[in-house]
Amino acid sequence: MSAVSLDEVRRDWTRLGSAEPLWAVCVDPDKRNGGWDDEEFLASGAAEIDGALARLAELGVGHGTGRALDFGCGAGRLSNALARHFEAVDGVDISAPMLAEARRLDRSGGRITFHLNEAPDLSAFPDDSFDLVYTDLVLQHLPPELAAGYLREFTRVARPGGAMVLGVPARERATFKGLVFRYAPWPLIRLAQRVLLRYPAPMRMHTWSPERIAAALADGSAPGRAPRIAASEEYWGGDHWQHLRHFVAVPPREESP
C-alpha cells in the first residue's frame, strides 16, 4: 500500500465527512442534503449492534465486555451503540471531519474515545487490547492490500477468547449496477459518482469473500491459532452487492504447562 493511495482515501473521506457525514455513513437516496435525523441515525446503529451481539451469543462466540474497537467509526453511529454494552469503546477513523461529527453525537457519557488514525496499521494500540473488534461497511472502501493489513491488525489487537464482527460485500450481484462495479475501470466509476450521482467524493468498492477474509485473518497467525469464522450471513442486499456479516471467534491462548 503506497502512501499516495492512503492519502487518497483520507482525502476522499475528509471531503465526505465535511459535506455529508451522516449520509456518507448510511447511504440512502432519501437522506441526502442533511436528511438524517440525529436520533434516527443513532437508533439505526443501536439496532445493528443489538442484533449482532445477540447473534454472537447464539453462535456461542464469547467475549468480555471491557473494551471494544469500532474500526472506521465515521460519525460514531456504532460507537454509541457499542458503549451501551462495553465499559470503553475506541472509535478509529481516517477522516477528521467525521470524528468531529462523532464527538458532537457522542451520547456515551465519556465511555468513547475517538482516534484519528492516518497510518496503515493500528500501532496506537498494543496487542490484546479489545474484547470485540467491530467494523461494518468500511473495508470495501479501502484498497485491498491496505484492508488485508488491517485484518491482520485486528487479530493482533483482539484479546484471546474475544470476537470480531466484520461486515463487507462478498460479491457483486448479477445486475446492471453490480456488473458495472465488477468490470468498469475505477476512473470511469469515480467520474460517474462525482458527475452523475454528485457524490462529494467518490467511494471505491472492493469485495471480500469468506475465503478471502479467512486467509487474511490466518496470515501471520500461529498454526492452529487463526481466528475462526463461526458464521458468514447475508444481512443486507440491494441491486449492487451481496453483503455478508462474518462472526469471528478469536481462539484463547493455550495454557503453559
UniProtKB/TrEMBL annotation:
Signal peptide (from-to): none
GO MF annotation, one: S-adenosylmethionine-dependent methyltransferase activity
BP GO annotations: methylation
Keywords: Methyltransferase, S-adenosyl-L-methionine, Transferase
Coiled coil: none
Methyltransferase domain ranges (all copies): 69-162
Methyltransferase is among the record's keywords: yes
Superkingdom of origin: Bacteria
PANTHER family: METHYLTRANSFERASE, UBIQUINONE BIOSYNTHESIS O-METHYLTRANSFERASE, MITOCHONDRIAL
Name of this protein: SAM-dependent methyltransferase
Provenance organism: Nocardiopsis composta
